[in-house]
Amino acid sequence: MRMNNMTQNQTQAAPASKKISTYLALIVMIVMALAVVALLIAAYTYVNAATAEDQITAAAFGVIGAVALAMSVFTLFQSRRQVEQMKIDAPKVITTIECQNKGCNQKTVREFQRGDYVYKEIDVPCTKCGGKQMITGIFKEIKEKEKTYNV
Ligand SMILES: [Zn+2]
Q1: Per-residue confidence (pLDDT) for residue 18, from 0 to 100
Q2: Residues 11, 25: one domain?
Q3: What is the whole-number distance in angstroms between the Cα of residue 95 and the centre of ligand 1?
Q4: How far apart are alpha carbons 73 and 132 in whole angstroms?
Q5: From CA 66, how far away is CA 41, in angstroms rounded?
Q6: 98 CA distance to ligand 1 centroid (A)?
Q7: Cα–ligand 1 centroid distance for 92 (angstroms)
Q8: What pLDDT shows up at residue 86?
Q9: Cα of 136 from ligand 1 centre, angstroms
Q10: Backbone phi and psi for residue 68, each to the nearest 5 degrees, phi listed first
Q11: Are residues 11 and 73 in the same domain?
Q12: What is the tally of structural domains in the chain?
């Protein structure tokens, strides 16, 4: 059940970042293709160069191709690093569950699951006394600080 919910969350979070990366990948691929074309023109011009002017043209195309290729590769690495950073910084949403049995005070914390809301009764009985459990809080886990949301 828990695994199920986790995979659901992952597929839910995927589309936004996927859209950005496919958009970026498309641009990078176009720039890469142009770079390869420029390098091919450079090679062709250099091989068939009859004058010094042709050699300059070949060098210019070579530089353009090399710079474009380097830029596209750099962008690819940069975007990959950003995606990784986003994954690390994504705050976890935590659900706290408390036993409703007075005097038990059993409190459990788990990852937020779809359908969780404050004051919702949980089907799973308390592991300590077997009493009814209720969600008492849902909050985002932010480094150092904890921000609570009163629903
Ligand atoms: Zn209990």
Answers
A1: 60
A2: yes
A3: 17
A4: 56
A5: 12
A6: 8
A7: 26
A8: 72
A9: 14
A10: -60, -40
A11: yes
A12: 2
CA distance to 37, 68, 128, per residue, from 44 (Å): 10, 18, 79
pLDDT at 27: 86
CA distances to 4, 13, 133 from 86, in Å: 23, 11, 34
Q: What is the pLDDT along the chain (151 residues), one digit of tens a residue?
A: 444 444 444 444 445 556 667 778 888 889 999 999 999 999 999 999 888 889 999 999 999 999 999 998 888 888 777 777 777 767 789 999 999 988 898 999 999 999 999 999 999 999 999 999 999 999 987 765 555 666 5
Q: Report how far ligand 1's centroid is from the alpha carbon of 100 (Å).
A: 7
Whether residues 71 and 121 fall in one domain: no
Ligand 1 centroid, distance to 110 Cα (angstroms): 16
My answer on whether 12 and 79 are in the same domain is: yes
Q: Are residues 7 and 65 in the same domain?
A: yes
Record the pTM: 0.45
Ligand 1 center to residue 36 CA distance, Å?
68
pLDDT of residue 13: 47
Its domain, for residue 26, covers 2-89
Distance 127 CA to ligand 1 centre (A): 7
Q: CB under 8 Å to 16, separation ≥6 — which residues?
A: none
Distance of CA 121 from the midpoint of ligand 1 (Å): 13
State the distance from the centre of ligand 1 to the C-alpha of 30, rounded, in angstroms: 61
Report CA(86)–ligand 1 centroid distance (Å).
38
Residue finishing a domain among 89, 116, 140: 89
